[in-house]
Amino acid sequence: MKKDKLLKPRKINFKRGYRIGREIIADLKGCDPRVIDDVQLLKRLVQEAIKTTNHHLLDITARKFQPIGVTVLGLLAESHISLHTYPEINYVAIDIFTCGKNKPEPILEYLQEKFGAKEVYWEYLRRGVMKQWQTIYENNGYKREIELQKVLHRRTTPYQTLEVVKAKVLGTCLFSNGTLQMATLDAHEYDSQMLKHLDSAETVLIVGGGDCSILKELVKNKEIKDIYMLEQDQQVIEIAHKYLGAAQALKDPRLKMFYGNATETISYLKDKKVDLALFDIINYPEHKAKSFYGKLFEQLASIGCPRFATQAGDPIEKEERNVILGAAKKYYKHIDSEEKYCFSTGMLRFIYGSGLK
Question: Is 99 a catalytic residue?
Answer without folding.
Answer: yes
